[in-house]
Amino acid sequence: MDALGRWGVRWIPELGDEDLDPHLLLWDMHRNVDLCDFDPGYPEYASVEGDLRTLTMVWRGDLSWPEALRSGRLEVDGQPRAASNVPWLGQGSFATVPRLAGQAAPVRAAVTATVV
User: What is the 3 state secondary structure string of 49-73?
Assistant: First the structure.
């Protein structure tokens, strides 16, 4: 599966709208961090808002976390300490896969995590 994922990122540079899947994105993210696609009833300390394409681009390494924030494509809201630590979201394991010539190079975001 890993080889197939790497192949897809390398040879399919941009996903079409029909390829974007919020449940698949959250499932992949969940392998690295504890995420929910429903409200489990715990207090919310920070939230990330953005469209599915932008979140997918950040996760794939096509767009850096800082650039997504600067451009307004992603917004973080919440308690200051928690909101400043949201970049722990990171990127998926395929974010560093080299792209074909002429495609945008993968962007690896440096992230740190602090449990709040």
Answer: EECHHHHHHHHHCCCCHHHHHHCCC
Q: What is the mean predicted confidence (pLDDT) over 32-61?
A: 84
Q: How many residues does the chain have?
A: 116
Any residues with CB less than 8 A from the CB of 78 and at least 6 apart, and which?
A: 44, 45, 46, 47, 86
- CA 82, CA 112: separation in Å to the nearest integer? 12
Domain ranges, ordered by start, for the chain? 2-89
**CATH class of segment(s) 2-89:** alpha beta
Neighbours of 106 (CB within 10 A): 18
pTM: 0.74
